[in-house]
Amino acid sequence: MSNFIEPRVRYEPKPLPLPHSTQRMKFHALAGDTSGGATSRILVDNLQNSMLATDECYLNFSVQGNIDCLGVNATSDPQDIYLNHNGATNCIRKLEVIHSGNSILTCDNFNMVASVLNVASVSYDANNVGCVTSGASLNITDVQDPIIQQQTTGATLKGMSMDYFGDKISGSDANSAKTPIISFSVPILGMLSSCLKHIPLDWLSSSLEIQITWENDARKVFNSLDSSAPVKSSSTIKVLDINLDTRINTYEQASMDIINKVNGWAKGKDPVNWCGFQYKVSLATITKAQQDASSKLETLIPNSRYKSLQSIIYASFPTNGTASGGTEIGYGASHWLPFIGVSSQQYRLGSHLIPQQKLNTIQKANMETISCFSAIDKSLACSMMTPTTTSMNERQPSPVTDANVVPSRGAIGVDVSTFGDSNQLVSGYNTTNLSVSSLQETTASTSTFAQQVCYVSKIMVLYQMNPDNGRISCSF
């Protein structure tokens, strides 16, 4: 008798999708062009019998920098200015999605979240596609990069080098210039689609409003190759041609009736629920004195008290400073990639220590970080963290003198969920009534400035659409 039972193969016709028409539509910002620090509003209309494909939403915008930098507009030897790594998402300070006065998604310090996820993430999945896919530098060239050539064959990441900007801002001023207009397309709404790929616009009682607050610090977007002539804080950013480009599926009324029936969408019926992921940021500071001495630090993470906390990702960001006489120093916000500024990392959730052993080596940190993002074989994982560019207890990066070199970078993620990892999570750690703190150590070393520490909390949220009033709400 056979030791196994052969499976039976059944051939059935694949069910056809409901007939519909699809088209790409652009929804433009209400106030048009704006500047850094301002907020743009985009309204997505509640179109009849239509679905918004959130996994195919792109925020289009163009940026022009008014750069204040020593010799940037000199005719004889102009100062090289280039686009920073993560330059596209660095332009966005805050993202918020609002419906009927309810904020259903708020991501403060969006550019920090994007940079941290871009460095730490190990897979392309729906949980972080909105932040990650707009990551690293935009230009791909065949110039060999000594730092990242091991990750790319025949192509490397590079900033945008602009020797001369053309139009002068004020007469013959050699220290001020306008950059060319640079256009971006960022899949910004991917965060909303972590579990729902289509939002029925027909169900909504009013338009869906997207608010984007733009970064007002030009040093996070543009950089100078000369550390003695940095991009100054007086530089500004202008944002133009802002619009949301998305795919809209439009169904016939008979098809929409079937969709409503299958999903139980009718007045008096139960609300329609689905889960998704959002990212919240807590900020702290490690002073110069704390970095210069061996010390144990405990930092509260206030933005982590939720019903379903999935993971926490730690990283430090450079800060700018001034030398004697008030001269700005050119290594700080201009090299705005996260790095690991402590020698060990651990978290206390109530009375529990997670993980049980301190993360005090890059190998341990990498393994923990991988578990936050993917259930794939860890040997297949890849990120911007490498043995040659990532180290523990790192201090603020030195000035970069080559646009082709990506500064040292790194992040540490810790998975705190209670059931496994990946997209199949059914629960997280309930920290609603718990104090969450970061336990970290620094080893004596020489530092230049304080570190701005960033903790990105990944949480599972519940979205709910009510048939009686056609509103979306979000529960943490």
Explained architecture:
By secondary structure, the protein is mainly β. The chain has one domain. It is 9% helix and 37% strand. The protein contains 6 helices and 25 strands. The chain has helices at 87-90, 110-120, 129-132, 253-263, 288-292, 362-371; strands at residues 20-28, 34-35, 39-44, 50-68, 81-83, 92-99, 102-108, 139-141, 156-158, 161-162, 176-178, 182-186, 198-200, 208-214, 222-224, 236-251, 272-286, 295-300, 309-317, 344-349, 352-359, 412-415, 436-442, 451-466, 471-475. Strands 1, 2, 4, 11, 12, 13 and 16 form a 7-stranded antiparallel β-sheet that branches. Strands 17, 19, 22, 24 and 25 form a 5-stranded antiparallel β-sheet that branches. A 4-stranded antiparallel β-sheet has the order 3-14-6-7. The longest helix is centred in the first third of the chain and has 11 residues, at 110-120. The protein starts with 19 loop residues before the first strand and ends with a strand. Mean pLDDT is 78; it is low at 123-167 and 420-425.
